[in-house]
Amino acid sequence: MALEKPDLSGSTAFITGTTRGIGKAIALALAEQGCNVVSTGKTSENDDYGEERDLEGSIEETAREVEARGAEALPIQLNIRDEDQVEAAAEQAIDHFGEVNIVINNASAIQLIPTEQLPPNRFDLMTDVNVRGTYLVCRAFADHLKSIDRDSWVLTNAPPIEVDRSPGSGPYAWSKLGMTFVTLSLAGELSGHDVGCNAFWPVTAIDTRATRHFGLGTEDDWRTPEIVSDTVLEILNRDPAEFTGNALYDEDLLRDAGLEDFAEYNLTEGDPEPLSAMISNPDYSRPDEE
Question: Which residue intervals make up region (Disordered) (predicted)?
């Protein structure tokens, strides 16, 4: 069964971390539905950051691919740990497009390392990028989202809060759960303004540069980023006044939308294990396995 996708013509999405991976997939999926995109991240063709870090992709490259799909794009180089940069980026995006009605917190730092092995500066980085960055972006757009008439959303790439521990990856899991906490709290704060605030999270590991860099399994364990972008589209196909305050897994939402076979997202035959869900919930099992 094909998923019904929303018409996003006239919408504008501010997305953090669009240079590659999940963020880029979301940006391009939204552009396919007519949504303008503010492409943000640290890797820009205007400096040598990408060359120095041996990274592929840039905010400008994603912007060009958005425009190739018929939508308008605005690339903004952004360090989401910097309050002034976040405020300026929000102002620039709103000034350029008139309004921004979709805000997606995707940018994230990852270090899947036990507490005793994680250097304090890496802990600070994850806290600043994941929790503080989500807070800064939400804060920068909250008043604007309350003021516009179009369906408005704050969506965050972070897991449901189901457990109080994650042995082996506690600092990272804590920082991701903090992103969820900020988003779900905002749902209550904006409940009278028809702004849907939700967190979404893949059950399986996703084939991204980070996944490969950290050796999180093999291709048998991964799905393509498109399962996450389809999850975002499914959320945007709903009523933000009704669908808010949720932290959900991609499989659960897509099953609810009528999708029964996930093979199109798998890199190899057979459904991958739920490695991503188990980062924040070591006891996770799929509903049909319980």
Answer: 267-290
pLDDT tens sequence across 175-189: 999 999 999 999 999
Please give the Cα distance from 136 to 83 (Å, whole number). 6
DSSP letter at 257 equals T
Q: Where residue 151 sits, what CATH number does that domain have? A: 3.40.50.720
Could you list the residue range(s) of the whole structural domain that residue 181 is in? Answer: 12-289
For residue 33, what are the contacts with CB-CB under 8 A and spacing of at least 6? 5, 6, 7, 8, 9, 233
Q: How far is CA 244 from the centre of its chain?
A: 16
pLDDT computed for residue 65 by the predictor? 98
Contact between 106 and 129 (Cβ < 8 Å): no
Find out whether 163 and 182 touch, Cβ atoms under 8 Å: no
Q: How far apart are CA 20 and CA 229, in angstroms?
A: 13
Report yes or no on 5 lying in a domain: no
Tell me which of 54 and 170 has the higher pLDDT. 170
- Tell me if 164 is assigned to some domain: yes
The answer to whether position 6 is within a domain reads: no
Question: Which backbone phi and psi does 196 adopt, to 5 degrees?
Answer: -85, 120
Q: Is residue 290 predicted with pLDDT exceeding 70?
A: no
Q: Is 135 a catalytic residue?
A: no
* Residue 268: strand pairing partners: none
Query: Which residues, 6+ apart, have CB-to-CB distance to 129 below 8 Å?
Result: 80, 81, 107, 108, 109, 175
Max Cα–Cα distance, the chain, nearest Å: 51
pLDDT (tens digit per residue) in 208-240 = 988 888 888 899 999 999 999 999 999 999 999
Radius of gyration of the chain (CA): 18
Catalytic residue among 135, 172, 249, 265: 172
Query: pTM for the full model?
Result: 0.96
How do residues 100-110 score in pLDDT, each as one tens digit? Answer: 999 999 999 99
**Helix, strand counts (H, E) of the chain:** 11, 9
